[in-house]
């Protein structure tokens, strides 16, 4: 869905307030997940991240990296999840995935895989074989999104979302565009179905483009700078690989791009429930974590060949 907005979004007015910034965090060191995902785990560098960014639990960002051709696709073997959702966003490269419900497919550039692990699932993901044979640039992000207690033991579900299903807002004055993955922005809805109110946006601004992006004041909001340099409000400059955490406010986030800039915005209503996690399990109590391990060992997550 394409929508051309007509609303003006001033950024330069001294009287125009911008949502306050809690902190700007530099990228943590890269580490490998399996042998196919070279990622920065941003939440590890943010104090009290689970509270400040609730309902989000994790952001692993794989910056652009060129892989050599191979006939043995790199990736992550079979692993379990319970109690949350994984959201994988592809920017460059392709990933093949399968899970114990029988779901699977390929995530290509612009696509999103929204997997609700809920009561338990086995999953594996690899560079897609055809893409791996040629090699090339690879860039992705994966979010973990918490589920409220009422939905942690729901049956697993999977939402395959392809690039042409995204809601798209074309910004005025040729400022750029917003791909709406989840939530609603300037009247445009994203295709993802969520268990709690969430906005997930891929924002692309041209140099000198500006934007005033509103979110409900109750939402926790974070922003990853994937490319470029921009100014927030009147005082802060952000550059590639910075992550910004915002405070609560009725004011919009005011952005002016100094160069072509791409931002990943994650915003959501906090769940405000206890979070107890151990590896791939995220529940509300220690007892529930112990039960997750017992269920996994007894085969209740199903079966999936490595």
Task: Give the arrangement of secondary structure elements.
Layout: E1 2-4, E2 21-25, E3 30-33, E4 37-41, H1 49-52, E5 56-67, E6 75-81, E7 84-92, E8 95-99, E9 104-107, E10 112-116, E11 121-127, H2 129-134, E12 136-146, E13 157-161, E14 167-170, E15 176-182, E16 184-185, E17 188-189, E18 198-205, E19 210-213, E20 220-227, E21 229-232, E22 236-239, E23 243-246, E24 253-257, E25 261-268, E26 276-278, E27 281-283, H3 286-297
Parallel strand pairs: 1-14
Antiparallel strand pairs: 2-23, 3-4, 4-5, 5-12, 6-11, 7-10, 7-12, 8-9, 8-11, 10-13, 14-15, 15-18, 16-17, 18-25, 19-24, 20-23, 20-25, 21-22, 21-24, 26-27
Fold and architecture overview:
It is a single chain. The chain is mainly beta and about 300 residues long. Helix content is about 5%, strand content about 50%. It has helices spanning about 50, 130-135, 285-295; strands at about 1-5, 20-25, 30-35, 35-40, 55-65, 75-80, 85-90, 95-100, 105, 110-115, 120-125, 135-145, 155-160, 165-170, 175-180, 185, 190, 200-205, 210-215, 220-225, 230, 235-240, 245, 255, 260-270, 275-280, 280-285. It has an eight-stranded mixed beta sheet with strand order 1-14-15-18-25-20-23-2, with no helix packed on it. Strand 8 (about 95-100) and strand 9 (about 105) form a beta hairpin. The protein starts with a strand and ends in a 9-residue tail after the last helix. The model is unreliable at about 1-15 (pLDDT under 50).
- SSE series: EEEEHEEEEEEEHEEEEEEEEEEEEEEEEH
| Helix fraction by DSSP (H/I, runs of at least 4) | under 10%
| Strand order of the biggest β-sheet | 1-14-15-18-25-20-23-2
Structural class: mainly beta
Name the poorly predicted regions.
1-15
Report the C-alpha radius of gyration, rounded.
19 Å
Question: Termini, distance in Å?
Answer: 38 Å
Please tally the β strands and state the result. 27
Q: What is the mean pLDDT?
A: 94
How is the main sheet built? 8 strands, mixed
Taken as a percent bin, the fraction of beta residues is over 45%
User: What's the helix count?
Assistant: 3
The shape is: globular
